[in-house]
Amino acid sequence: MLMSETRLEAGRYWRSGAGKGWERKGNLVFFDCAGGFLRLAVLCGHCLRVTFNPDHRPTERPSVAVVNMPSCEAFTVEQTDDRIMLRTDELTVEVAKETARIKISDSQGHVLSEDADDLGWGRRTVRCTKVMDEEMHFYGLGEKTGFLDKRGRKYLLWNTDVPVHTPTKDPLYKSIPLLLCFRGEWATGTFIDYTGRIWFDLGVEAHDRYGFEVENRELDYYFIYGPDLKRIITTYTGLTGRIELPPLWALGYQQSRWGYYPEAVVRNLAATFRQKDIPCDVIYLDIDYMDGYRVFTWDRERFPDPGRLMADLRAQGFKIVTIVNPGVKKDPDYEVYVEGVRRNLFCRWVTGEVYHGRVWPGEAAFPDFTKEETRAWWAEKHHALLGNGVAGIWNDMNEPSDFSSPSENRMLATVPDDLMVENDGHPCPFGRVHNAYGLQMCRSTHEAFRRLRPGERPFILTRAAYAGIQRYAAVWTGDNCSWWEHLAMSLPLHMNIGLSGVPFVGGDVGGFKEDSTPELFARWVQVGAFTPFFRAHSMYNTRPHEPWAWGPRVEEICRRYIKLRYALLPYLYNEFYRASQTGLPIMRPLVLDYPEDERTHNLNGEFLWGESFLVAPVTQPGVVKQCVYLPEGVWFDYWTDRRYEGKNDYLVDAPLEILPLFVKAGAIIPSVPAVNYVGEKQPEFLQLDVSPDAHGTARYTFYEDDGLTQRYREGEYNLIDFSCRASGEGLLFRIEPVVMGYSSGRKSYRLRFHGLPWAWEINGMEVPAEFGFRVDRGIIEIEIPDEGQAVNI
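Given the sequence above, the corresponding structure tokens read:
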């Protein structure tokens, strides 16, 4: 259904109108308005929930996104002649008696959010508009095309199978209705918890207003005050859940193609990676491994013994991830279909008949993942895959895609809105839960791992998503193309998904559709090495997209950056650990860490990789010099150790072999020797590259566990503080265990000090130039045993 068919003209909305009374119950304040029901819930001093329903009662339907609902009663309510005022320790909320408009201010009186109109509703929608000034920037909203700052665009949140991502294409596969409003000195977040259509207007219809509108009879949103962006994301993920620690192998390089079959092709692919000394942990099987595209089956001609194949590849260090699509082939001889019909587990018409759309297997039924029984049944069916040694599941086509519409629009189609779903005891039309279909499918897949692989960490990859998906799956950004424009667009795309609470994100390296070029593929691998999810993928009718497919120069570039990824896995894994604790993204825009710097507010072509790296990719052909902006502080060129002062632009060398990469002064970077796959060998030492700041200080808290099992939840992990500081005695470095519940098997630490003046001393002993000194980089190296105890050097 098109937007124009669901939205009313602005003048045809009824209004919430004057308040007729109010009352407080615990953390809730209720307002009886002339035009509906308004409720404010105080969740904490900086987070509120606002619910409006013109039917004068809340629906109280359970949320699939919000899994933690705090409650705070530490606030006061008072009234004046014209308003009701609610005060927490950080916010003042004013509700106008005459209009029920809401204004929220901070404790200093700065207006953070102000309704521009009354809350309004039409025949099928409810909307809210807010005052906007010229200094506001907008981030988040999950997967949206365009630049980092979303101001000046309209967006529809409606999960859609999109054939081509042009710069203004909307919507895409994922709908995460978290809008971050940033104004320099403060930031706010608005999360609209609704799984049907949501529209955002960020200053298009009026230059001084922004707003959102839901296709529903109720508007339910959360207001989160920062004042900084980081606290908003941490608060939001406190509501919707945070990423679990993934298996460490899922952070390695992953190779995919639509068309790795039969078995001999897969075995040859694996052998080639090992022969060419290019690390790789994962190989994907797309839809051709199935018997006639029947989900949870194997084509026994192409893959006669899946269990043996999985075991052989695992012995070589490879894990297999198989695609799973929701469409179940209509076939009276197919057990999955017959059982699903018999048990009433598929989406149905209101008259009770099973709905059949068309996807890869032809006519197909779609499981009703909003039903607990369906999710449990689908989880059990994964035994056909996980029981054969499959290591991970790739959920695709789960918008859900449906080819049933006319041919010119078939890739934009989905199942009809007016199908009926169970919705865990709250039956409703499919359109109301459309955006959560992929999330609910991943929820079921997550349950499959819990049942069938209870001691292991699951790895699930999904195309479609809704708020809260970070609890279950990694995401990739769908069917991109082998265009330089898509490489450039991937940077703000991934960063905004990260700002939306989903840290495990990446795209198809090299481009899925059309043919890449050697230069484009090399540059894309360089970027992919620093995205949280790192997978090359391509379509069946394109040229090969393996690292060796482009000649020896590109092959060596790919080898170099993939090995760099593996060397830096300890650093990356620590960023995942921090994301699991805070919800903060791993691939992050500079504005997140440098909000006071106006240059960062819409910087699209650079990103931070965790807290310590700045990555400035080349995203245009023929570039050998790259202009890089470095924010405040001191930065070191990763390749040359050259020192740069921040808050300046620099033109740096960027031949095809070089990705401009910088380390922030004050950082300690953990790394290990690169391996062919995670677990190939236990590293004997942990390397710590220390780049003290101008004061001679650096600090890092290092996390480690076995990277595979759930035993870290029982305390089998280590936390170790590393720090250095300059003092009158020289440069002091300290290793201090905080938690020691895991035996790493490590023998030593290799300390490498960068950027030190020659006259500095270590442990009171002057370090001569020839001791651990490399002329080309001036690095001082010291190796000390790891005895699991505090050490001062």
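The radius of gyration is 27 Å. Try to locate this feature in the token string yourself.
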